Each structure stands twice: as C-alpha cells, then as structure tokens.
Amino acid sequence: MANGVIKQGISNVKYVLFSQFSYYLVMFFTSLVLPGLLGVIPNGYYQIYFFYTTSFVGLLHLGYNDGVFLKYGGYQYRDLPRRSFRSGTRIYVCMNALEMVVVIAIILFEKDPSKRFAFFFAALDIVAINLSSLLNYINQATGRIKLYSFIVVAEKAQLMAGLLIMLLLRRMDFHAVIVLDFAAKVVVLCINVYQCRDLIFGEHIPLKEAWGEYWDNIRVGIKLMIANLMAMMVLGAGKLFLERLGSVSDFSMYTFAANAINVAMMFISAVGLVLYPVLCRLPKNVLPYYFQRINRLLCAFIFCMMLLYYPMVPIIRYFLPHYTPVFQYLYLLFPIVIMQSKMQLLINNFYETLREEKAMMWANVSSVAIFVAIALPLFLWKHSVMVIVWTTLGVFVWRCYASELFLKKKMDIHHFRNIAEELGMGALFLLLNAFLGWEIAGIVNTIVVAFYVFHYRKELIPAAKTVISGALSR
Fold first, then answer.
1. Which long-range contacts (CB under 8 A, 24 or more apart) does 22-27 make?
2. DSSP string, 333-390
C-alpha cells in the first residue's frame, strides 16, 4: 500500500515540475534580470509590492485555507462536502473584501507616493490571492495536480509575456510591472473559479451553519497559519526591518540577495507541493523510514543546488554591476538553502502529517522571538545589513535542527549523524567563500559535494531510481 501511494505521489511531481519550471523562469527573470532593467531604487519599490503580496496578503485568510487543507488532505475531489464548502467560502470572500477595504484605508496615511502605489495594489490582491489560493489548496489536497499545475503556468505565462513585451518596447517601469502582476492574478482567479465552480455556486446550508463551517476551518488551521506566519517572519522580519527602518536602496539590495537564494530552492519546493497528500495516506509505522530516506536524498540535492552560488557570482558581476555590494553577504545567505529546504520539504510536512501543528507553531514563534530580540537592538545600534544576515542564519540553524530533533524523538529515531554532516557542509561552504576566491572555493566545494554523493551512492541511487521510474511510468 505504501509503495503504491508513493508511486502515485511521485507521478504528480512531473506535472508540478512543469508548473515550477514556469515559476522558475519568471522568478529568475524578476530576481536576476528585472533588477538590472529597473535600477536599484525602482526595483526596491517593486520588491516592496512583491514582499507584502507574497508574505502578508496570503496570511489574511486567518487560517481558513490551512484548515481546509488539513481537513480535506486525504479526500477525493468528488467526495468534498459541497453545500457546506460553498457557504463557508462565501463568508470567506466577504471577510477578505472587508479586510481589503480596511487595509486600503490604512494605506492612505503612507507619505511616499511610490510606496503608496505598491501598497495599494498589494491590498487589491487580498481577495484574488486568497480565494485562488484556497482553490489551489483544494486542487493540491485532492490530487488534482494537473489542474493545479495549469493554473500556475497560466499566471506565470501571462506575467512573462507582459514583461517581454515591455522589454521589447523598452518601457520597463515598476508601476507597469505591478499592474501587470495584479492583472495576471485576476485572470488566473477567474480560471480557477470556473474550474471549481461546483464548489462555489449552487445550493448552500443556512447562514448559522455556514458561520460554524467558516469558524471551524479557522479553528483547525489557525495554528498552522500562525506557524507559517512565524516561518515567513524568520526571513521576512529582516526585510521588514529594512523596509521600515532602512532605505529603499538597502531593501532592494538585501531582497536581491534573498531572491538569489530562492532561485536555488525552486526545484526543491516543487516536490514539497505533492509530499503532504502522499504522507497523510501512508501508514504511521513507515513514516520513520521515509523520513530518513527523504532526508538523505533531499540533502544530496540541496548541496548540489548550493553550487549555483558560483555561476551567480560572474553573472551579477558582469551583468548587474550595481548589485555587486551584495557579495559581502550573499554567500552567508546560501546555507539558508539547506535549512529552509529541509523545513519546507521534509520537516513541515512531517509536522502536519503527525498533526503536531502546535509544536510547529512554537518552533517558529520562538525563532521569531529570538530574531527580534537579537536583531532589532543591534540593527538600531549598528544600522548594518550584516546584523540582519548573521542573525537570520543563526535563527534558521536553530529552527531547522531543533525541529528535526523533536520529530526524531516523536518517531523514535536515534540516528543523528546526518545533522553533524549537514552542519559541517554548511560551515565548510562559509569558510571557503570567506577566505578563498570564488573560483577556488567553487572547485573545492564541488569536489566535496561529489564525494558526499559518491559516499552515499548506495542509498541515493535506489531512491533516485524509484523517483525516476515512478514519474516515467505515469
């Protein structure tokens, strides 16, 4: 049974990889090409819109989306309780619309007109993003990965086409880029609503029962939402400090560096999108086995992705010379790829599968509390981006491995050698890049990663074959 579930889940990866390729393409363009076309300050304003849209707007569902995802993660689409779902969703849309109006009223007090423009469109995204996200959660949770992938591709294709047209016309402007992004989200929402129309239109339950359904989904998902908020704030708090307390230029530079490490995480996140529905169908007694197997395969892949730092250096140096100041801390952010990828693909999924949302929430809350307690006073004193970078790195290490130790204890796993190996690989990456040139550091790190893969080939090759054969057989 477990093998059948795993193979079915693996087969979904190829559809998600296709959708993630479009996301990867757009993210690469907006992370590494668009900053050079817009310039440091205009790119900073676009990144403000992007930061609040991706970090805070999606949290205004107040846990409703997460509750739906947790409640219906093992359902087939045809088995969903349509009448109650329709009623709860209608209340949900009304509440999002109310939140949008309140946020727009607050935005009117922003003095910087360019920031006000970015904030205004981020507010308009509240309904579009949250409703589309809800329907995407349903598609993902019920195994409709082909539809989910199409929705992702449709949004990114529109955005990429618009950006290319602007590039050809030589009319690249951050106002137009923001409007284009908003328009793409609205079009995708319309497609999503049409494809899931039987979950929105039709018979519904009485209003009193509908309120019960709405609040029950929030009750189920609120802890996971807070956990996700805190997880976002571990990296987002640094951006928030720079946006509120620093200059637009500092924010633009730091966001550029953070986006560079996101490029290395694109393919890793593709697998995470299909892992939870697979894990929640597995018998509990096989979870420790898959935890260790996924962890080994994941780490080998992560170490290879970290090597993307080395081609990025000459690309930035020769094509984006205005952003070369990020070299003083870009390499310090890359080990975050290890921790963030493990959290996203492995640890968070096992937290949810074991229904340990409360523990997940407290791990993230403690991380944010540590970050704020250390970074805020030091940043106000030194006013240096390096304070944000070092604190972020330390907090990511704490959150990742404290969580891993908790889950291993929960599943009665007594193997901890991998933690020392991963910390050692991360420390070696930092030391080599701090004291050697990027060319020599790149060669040495490539050799070390190759040795790691060779050393664990007997574990990695069968796991990789399982993934490839499972994907190609569907």
1. 22/152, 22/153, 22/156, 22/157, 22/160, 23/152, 23/156, 23/266, 24/263, 24/266, 24/267, 25/156, 25/160, 26/156, 26/159, 26/160, 26/163, 27/259, 27/262, 27/263, 27/266
2. HTTHHHHHHIIIIIIHHHHHHTT-HHHHHHHHHHHHHHHHHHHHHHHHHH--HHHHHH
Distance CA 385, CA 300 (A): 31
Choose from 133-142, 245-254, 430-439, 443-452 the range with maximum mean pLDDT: 443-452
Contact 302, 268 (CB under 8 A): yes
Nearest to 233 by CA among 364, 390, 342, 340: 364
pLDDT class of 473 with cuts at 50, 70, 90:
very low
| C-alpha triplet 146, 149, 150: angle, nearest 5° | 85
Chain centroid to CA 237: how far? 15
Contact at 8 Å (CB) between 411 and 291? Answer: yes
Q: Tens digits of per-residue pLDDT, 62-120? A: 778 777 777 776 677 777 777 777 777 888 888 888 989 998 998 888 888 888 899 99
Q: How many CA atoms lie within 13 A of 15 on its CB side?
A: 20
- CA 95 to chain CA mean position, Å: 25
